[in-house]
Amino acid sequence: MPTEAALEKPNFAKSVTMYSEARRTLAAGVSSNVRLGGAPSPLYYVRGKGAHLFDVDGNRSIDYVLGNGPAILGHAPDAVLDAVRDSLDDGQLFGAQNTREVALSQALCRVLPNAELIRFATSGTEAVQMAFRLARSFTGRNRIIKFEGHYHGWVDSVAFSVKPSENAAGPATHPVPVPETPGIAQDAAEGLIVCGWNDLDALDGLLRAHGHDVAAVIMEPMMVNGGVIPPEPGYLPGVQSLCRRHGAVFICDEVITGFRVGLTGGQGKAGVQPDLSIYAKAISGGFPLSAVAGRRDIMEQLGSGVSHGGTYNGHVQSMAAGLAVIEQLTKDDGAAYRAMDLAGGRLMAGLRDLAGQHQLPLQVNGLPTVFQTAVSAAGAPRTYRDAARFDQQLMTAFVDAMRDAGIRINPRGVWFLSTAHDDAVIDDTLGRAAHAMREFSRTCPDVGG
Ligand SMILES: Cc1ncc(COP(=O)(O)O)c(C=O)c1O
Questions:
Q1: I want to staple 408 with a disulfide (CB 3.0 to 4.6 A). Which of 61, 159, 212, 367 is the partner?
Q2: How many angstroms does the Cα of residue 215 sit away from the middle of ligand 1?
Q3: Distance CA 185, CA 393 (A)
Q4: Residue 151 known to be catalytic
Q5: For 50-78, what is each residue's pLDDT tens digit?
Q6: pTM
Q7: Are 276 and 251 in contact (CB under 8 A)?
Q8: Which CATH number does the domain housing residue 108 bear?
Q9: 285, 314, 343 — which closes off a domain?
Q10: Which of these is catalytic: 44, 64, 151, 235?
Q11: Do 434 and 345 have their domain in common?
Q12: Has 281 been annotated as catalytic?
């Protein structure tokens, strides 16, 4: 175990100043509400390289946020930047097809087990909407079943029950759709049914009652947004058979898990064959790109009447980035994943050891390339409601202690790994985490054993 690092508390004065300045012209000072918050203010960054980010105050952090998942090869990876640079002189957008777009669809269809056809878009949110349209048109039905704690984008049709409070969410066996925000169209919930995840009986009951009008069942194949929780053994295959039995399209939203938990994503780990899958984030290492991939008969509707558009779809630089990322991730028979699994496994074990030394009840849940830490004696969560009971104040204090030690994790305690997180980075992280856990135990003395 690396020795504890001796660290000074960082200064964030310039970020604080920039936050007040930003709010004069940039709504709420940020470009996504997910980035609001953090004490003393949201931080402002100037540069990233490999596993590190550099903020306006000159602090260097080891970054485990990685743009909330996309930077699977780290920040500014040479292979991707070279490919994008090479593409720049060819132009950006043609309002028509380009050769890289065909090459990337071929590469993806080779790698992804359930991709007979691909259609590109720009964000995960959009790709989800495309999948819903395809499913509704294919089945002639209207409603979509989604799961509590799962996130599929910020638009009205799905912005329900992502992080509902237990009071608002209704009984666990029959959750009610809880809008994520004011401003959602009043009738948006009508197209949705919300179900508890990791509970096959609940889905069975819903499909028996409403199956005739259910176009699709969508889920993150491993929940990440509502607490990092893998599916229980047999759950995803069970969902797949229920979908087949009731004629609903089974959609795996692999926006986070795709190309992160392995080349074949969460569906590969669970051994299922969804009808449609959504990819984004790691697919292009941080350039804007998403895709729907799936069954030929469903996808072919895009050539026979079902409409989908987007000015930026097939963007030359995103295609170049996607091709470079796939090349890196597939080379040497997936060596990148073997390395990330080893590094992430060592990090998870090291964090558990450190927590043991400080008698902290630290949950470290998930997979080596994406896991969550939560200070809780309650045991590993198996549902969104278990994860929602994690003490948020403790969570924030833990995240802040890590930040002050130069380790950046997301506000929900989620850690994403990249190929740039090598042994030296993991050693550095554990030395800093030792310091962070000592400070955390000092400021939250009631938590330890
Ligand atoms: C599982 C999942 N689906 C969809 C989305 C929406 O993707 P985007 O932010 O690219 O619109 C996200 C974003 O975090 C996600 O985690």
A1: 61
A2: 21
A3: 32
A4: yes
A5: 999 999 999 999 999 999 999 999 999 99
A6: 0.97
A7: yes
A8: 3.40.640.10
A9: 314
A10: 151
A11: yes
A12: yes
